[in-house]
Amino acid sequence: MNITDPFLDRDGDKLREECGIFGVLGARDAAAMAALGLHALQHRGQEAVGITSFDGQEFYSRRGIGHVAANFSSGQAIAELPGMMAAGHVRYSTTGGSGLRNVQPLFADLASGGFAIAHNGNISNAMFLKRDLVQKGAIFQSTSDTEVIIHLVATSRYPTLLDRFVDALRLVEGAYSLICMTPEGMIACRDPLGIRPLVMGKLGDAVVFASETVALDVVGAELLREVEPGELVQVSLDGAISSHRPFGNEAGRPCIFEHVYFSRPDSIMGGRSVYQVRKAIGAELAIEAPADADLVIPVPDSGVPAALGYAQQSGLPFELGIIRSHYVGRTFIQPSDGARNLDVKRKHNANRALVEGKRIVLIDDSIVRGTTSLKIVQMMRDAGASEVHMRIASPPTEHSCFYGVDTPERSKLLAARMDVEAMAKFIQADSLAFVSIDGLYRAVGEAQRNAARPQYCDACFSGDYPTRLTDLAEREDQGQLALPVEKVA
Ligand code: SF4
């Protein structure tokens, strides 16, 4: 969820990234650094936050509901987390639901010592694995899919912790970027396809891991590189780094939606500036779907870079035709009559002096249910726009995500229910167009999408899921169509 866009998320009408993770080893103020890093990742999850630290003897943990600043801005909170190693997690729950027991990092005392784990992603066979573990006597403390990994590590018969960890991951399907802490040090890894991001940096002698480079920037760390798909990086307490490739060297398929929306525009993802990629998507959109119009207007904030790219490519002026309030609280009682879109206007308002009498191109990053787009188009018309042409900086979102992103059921996705023409009617736009999937691939630097083996995960657009979806298949076998994201238990 994008914290800067409360209106746009109001109806659940955005895909929401579920988690951000951060870890540091070798810093005197590790917990404070983790809090700062997590603050930079707050857009990846606002429901809960946790940090676990290790001082060479003991693990310490503090977890809370709400934002990082609300839980970790006091000296006392940080003082409760001593040690030179810390890992943290911001969360927006889907798998497992909300509640403190599901807030990560999760921690367990294993035979080998303490084990803390922070996970970004979603294990698509978690229910299948859990059922087997429970039958063998495992007792789960949370309803999070991540706890399955702890039980698999605990019950593995391999001699070393690293081997037990790899043994556990071999059974896991889906998407995972993980930061784990043990009494020997830190382990960071990505699933074999690298679906969710994870980068590695350095600050003096400290090693830092984070979901996005923006978190490295904020703590002053230098980006070393991405943790590669299928790579497991082990850092010992004395700072020795070793890289392991237990799953071979399969090419990755990272989530292409990170470029479209999830990541902060000031992050570097896959070696590319997210901001520049978004501008390039806008430029592709202008080439593929020009509009006879007077102005290009972004839907703030996520549509801004693509709108700039569209305007520069098309030669049309870029203007801020929608102004966002920075002082939006949660809830107001709505006046009953004549209040159409009042709550919308409290948060975003049309810049009438600019829009009136103009033919406008509105740029947004995606359409999920379509309810938000409808309201924005209405807002532009109410402000006097003579034509509203909607352009979307991603292909139609036709499929649900099962890799750590909150999406509505497929039946609620507008693009799964309608073709583009019908969608344009639904949102009451004069025209509607989406960037093509090849246009999106060109924007991220590829010549085109490799249909035989796509370079990215683009399943929410293509339906081409890069892993098995065991839990979903089981549910469908049982005649249930609900997504496997609510409860593992
Ligand atoms: S399905 Fe879409 S949102 Fe989910 S990982 Fe793949 S590209 Fe990203």
- Count of DSSP strands: 23
Q: Which regions are unreliable across 5 or more consecutive residues at pLDDT < 50?
A: 1-11, 480-489
Largest sheet, in brief, is: 7 strands, antiparallel
Label the overall shape: globular
Tell me the number of helical segments per DSSP (H or I, 4 or more residues long).
Answer: 18
Strand content: 15-25%
What does this structure look like?
The protein is α+β, with helices and mostly antiparallel strands and 489 residues long. It has 18 helices and 23 strands. The strands form six sheets. The chain has a seven-stranded antiparallel sheet, covered by helices on one side. It is globular and about 70 Å long. Iron/sulfur cluster (SF4) binds at residues 15, 195, 255-257, 401, 403, 405, 457-460.
Feature tags:
489 residues; disordered N terminus; six-stranded antiparallel beta sheet; 24% strand; seven-stranded antiparallel beta sheet; globular; binds iron/sulfur cluster; 29% helix; alpha+beta
